[in-house]
Amino acid sequence: MAGNQIAGAEKLIPPHGGYRNLKGFQIAQLIYDVTVRFSNRYIDRKSRTRDQMVQAARSGKQNICEGSVASGTSRKMELKLTNIARASLEELRLDYQDFLRERGLDEWPPNHPALVRFKAKRCATLEEVREWVENERRGNIAAQIPRTNMDTHRRGDRVKLSVAVGASPRRSVSSAELAANAALSLLNVCCYLIDRQIVSLEKTFVEEGGFTERLYRVRRERRSRGQA
Hints:
The protein is mainly alpha-helical and about 230 residues long. The protein has one domain (about 1-125, about 185-225): 23S rRNA-intervening sequence (de novo design (two linked rop proteins)). It has helices spanning about 1-10, 25-40, 50-70, 75-100, 115-120, 125-145, 175-210, 210-225, and strands spanning about 165, 170-175. Strands 1-2 form a two-stranded antiparallel sheet. Strand 1 (about 165) and strand 2 form a beta hairpin.
């Protein structure tokens, strides 16, 4: 009986640090990879925004990690760090929105055809995101080139092409617009998952308390077993 009590007893330091299994962390890590590439390609190296975007993306994934590891002894710290991760990703989302707005580019709604295809692809790596961008360009390039002018777009001509992804064949977007909207789509999903995680952490913290309360329960349980 005593052995069963010990086996089922509450642990002072519960399992923790499994952040790599969190879908929110996995997407945050992909957002970081996408943002590093995006900022290197499309943001002026002299611009402070370039470093700020990378740092915000890094803060998102790193604080999820740190919060998960800290949860063993401090649920309060886990909740605080997860909130910091959420705030950093919101800052990053605003940077992508600013990028589009300042350049007269569109932020697409969730039901935009290209975004529907992006979400269906369920990208898990930077390479898969890059592949989606290239597929969007190749798959729609013909709609942007009039047949009567095809000869001007042969391999030897220096003509910069863009791809039509909307309903109108005249609406064209650059790879930067594709990548920015892909990043925003990932951010929307990631922020939603972290919001749900925060609600769950809040509920657990209110109902079970933190390390101090757990220490009290463990001590009380062990004293009780010693008297039995």
